[in-house]
Write a structure and sequence with these properties.
Keywords: Membrane, Transmembrane, Transmembrane helix. InterPro entries: P-loop_NTPase. With about 375 residues, the protein is an alpha/beta fold. Helices cover about 40% and strands about 10% of the residues. The strands form 2 sheets. It has a 7-stranded mixed beta sheet with strand order 5-3-4-2-6-7-8, sandwiched between helices. Helix 7 links the parallel strand 7 (about 255-260) and strand 8.
């Protein structure tokens, strides 16, 4: 039996492995990968193996990835594709990552966690969460520099949680954000009853950002309840409609799914919920999702020594930037602009003559009937 096998069994745990943040080790399915009853193709085994991967590299990997994020500049992860030089690519000065999800999914808590891990901000919550007040909900788009650095190469936008009863309106607004860009302090309007919000919030003067990547945040506790506890399936149906919205896909790739509130479930429920939602969305149970525990209302993790969760969050951000730098397009030249203007002119002329044809046809029919 190898050292890796010993590390993967319940019977040979050392003091580090027995700590509470290795929650997956307490389930009966946690066995040696060489056990004849285990199958390398099973989703359960894949998740357990992924958690062990995170555990084994978290201690050294966190600092390494954090350093890469600290020195990251927009376009650093871009690779030459199609014979075009980097100087010819339309790379924004700041990569913009947008967090979306249902109300109460944990987006604001996730932002606080980013500040705590990357900004070393201590126990101060930088973004108010719905847990702090039952009546509170993020009502505007908020830009966050989670690295707290003047040389930051990316920013994270927190958005209003989508209402289950108004999903179509919410998704339409997200499509608008993806098309027209977003600004800090921009009101989130999901209906006419929210128009008054714009009177109190103004995004004027703030830079408009092009959304480069979208992260979908989902409450794992709600997901498990919907699938296994006879709960309403409406939340998972809403997550699916959001996740597969064509507007938020970049480079023909799915967004990253971050599962929160998993720490409120039993270990076996936590894994089964992850497997089920990944299967439902048609994404890999390992590379398609990250299980990240929520922050408490004081802005700290339930378990302060949880290096696995620290590393999972850092890796998730790193992957969003890798994917974002694949979405850049070539710069528009004067030739492209001229072609675009001519095409718009031709479309306008076609519409004008179409209207004339319709009018004359109506006049002809009226004269014939008269």
């Amino acid at each position: 039996m190898t050292n890796d096998t010993c590390n993967f069994t319940l019977t040979h745990q050392n003091s580090e492995e027995s700590s509470s943040f290795c929650w997956w080790k307490s389930i009966p399915e946690f066995k040696s990968p060489y056990d004849s009853s285990s199958s390398s193709s099973s989703s359960m085994f894949k998740v357990l193996r992924e958690m062990e991967r995170l555990r084994m590299i978290s201690e050294q990997g966190v600092d390494e990835l954090k350093h890469k994020l600290m020195i990251y500049k927009s376009g650093d992860f871009w690779l030459p594709i199609g014979g075009i030089k980097k100087e010819e690519m339309d790379i924004p000065p700041i990569i913009t990552v947008l967090l979306v999800g249902l109300s109460g999914s944990g987006k604001s808590s996730l932002v606080n966690f980013m500040y705590s891990v990357l900004g070393r901000s201590g126990l101060i919550p930088f973004s108010q969460t719905s847990n702090e007040s039952s009546n509170y909900s993020t009502m505007i788009l908020e830009e966050h520099n989670v690295l707290r650095s003047q040389r930051n190469g990316f920013c994270v936008y927190d958005s209003r949680g989508l209402d289950l009863d108004r999903m179509e309106e919410g998704i339409e607004e997200i499509k608008e954000w993806m098309t027209n860009g977003i600004r800090h302090n921009q009101p989130c309007r999901f209906g006419e009853d929210d128009v008054g919000l714009s009177l109190n919030c103004s995004s004027g003067g703030f830079v408009k950002r092009r959304v480069n990547y979208v992260v979908v945040v989902a409450n794992l506790a709600d997901v498990y309840k919907a699938f296994f506890s006879g709960g309403d399936l409406k939340p998972v149906l809403a997550i699916k409609s959001l996740f597969h919205c064509s507007s938020i896909r970049t480079s023909n790739s799915d967004p990253i799914l971050i599962l929160t509130h998993g720490d409120t479930l039993k270990p076996i429920e936590r894994i089964n919920g992850r497997i089920q939602i990944c299967s439902y969305l048609g994404i890999p149970v390992t590379t398609g999702a990250y299980d990240i525990a929520c922050l408490t209302e004081e802005g700290i993790l339930p378990e302060e020594s949880d290096l696995v969760t620290y590393f999972a969050l850092t890796e998730a951000i790193y992957r969003t930037l890798l994917q974002s730098d694949r979405t850049h397009s070539p710069k528009k030249t004067y030739k492209h602009r001229i072609v675009y203007i001519l095409s718009r002119v031709m479309c306008s002329l076609a519409w004008f003559f179409g209207m004339l044809s319709h009018v004359f046809q109506k006049l002809g029919d009226k004269k014939k009937n008269g």
